[in-house]
Write a structure and sequence with these properties.
The protein has helices at residues 2-9, 11-19, 44-54, 62-70, 106-116, 155-161, 166-184, 248-251, 260-280, 305-314, 329-341, 352-365; strands at residues 73-80, 84-91, 94-101, 129-136, 141-148, 195-197, 206-208, 214-216, 223-226, 231-233. With 370 residues, the protein is an alpha+beta fold. Helix 7 (166-184) packs antiparallel against helix 9 (260-280), helix 7 packs antiparallel against helix 12 (352-365) and helix 9 (260-280) runs antiparallel to helix 11 (329-341). The longest helix is centred in the last third of the chain and has 21 residues, at 260-280. Mean pLDDT is 88; it is low at 6-31.
Amino acid sequence: HVCSLYSKLIPLSCHGRYKRQETRPRYSIGLEQDETYIPPGESLKDLIEQSQSSGSGSGLPLLVQRTIAKQIQMVKQIGKGRYGEVWMGKWRGEKVAVKVFFTTEEASWFRETEIYQTVLMRHENILGFIAADIKGTGSWTQLYLITDYHENGSLYDYLKSTTLDTKAMLKLAYSSVSGLCHLHTEIFSTQGKPAIAHRDLKSKNILVKKNGTCCIADLGLAVKFISDTNEVDIPPNTRVGTKRYMPPEVLDESLNRNHFQSYIMADMYSFGLILWEIARRCVSGGIVEEYQLPYHDLVPSDPSYEDMREIVCIKRLRPSFPNRWSSDECLRQMGKLMMECWAHNPASRLTALRVKKTLAKMSESQDIKL
């Protein structure tokens, strides 16, 4: 599987490799590429912009990726997940985030790398992909994914420590849904982009940039829609989404796996919960709620499928709104928006584009420039 990803891209490197064959000990062929061809003074931004304008619009050439990966110094661990660890690293003095996958999570690494390398995938509200690499010593394999680094961390971390005004709230919500909208949208052109559904949307998988906008991360579970053949391309992955954010149709197993739109509408349910997390941290009339995860008051801290199914499918409960929201026009509208995202019936949920347009209108009426 991994080989097929690399075989698509390897030809770039063959020429240089065979030319040097005579002078090298045989065992290192293909592992030790010459690292001289990224000129000094090139920033990551420069390299990516060059590859965008000249290349396929699907990221840096593989050899450049492998060279960057080799030259990164790991600085400190900044996170840990089901799939592995996240480190802050440096490449020529620039900070980058390095996701190191457990060997058992090869499918997630492969999927995420493949999705990030999709043409026309780059967007300001989707985490910027830099490189992917496999380092192997025979018995031990390490799978790396290198992306932009955002020091504010995840939306979850950010909301725990930060209260918001109306502008900051709308900015977080609008930028998140803009990223989701780009993911969900198919782009028809010579080098089109397929529609992609995330399948593990939650505040821990959205990052907050320095300027107070968000970008969507963690695409290891994403599904693509191949419109030519009308097929849903599902990753060969044992990992499932996060139970707390699963929509009713996933919890009760009624989701139609062959219908791509089902996955899009499942994302929208999860997005409704994220809007709730954001809105609670917006101050109105001098009041704000402490940060909580959705359903914090209804299920245990590590809920089972059964716990979630009981609350979401059988009792059909949803997170409750603080009373103060009714007396603040903007929070009242946010409440309406989230309810229309987490509707029980997937067909009646709002699309990402609809949410994006509504949030843009709300900002306009508040005289807020997003």
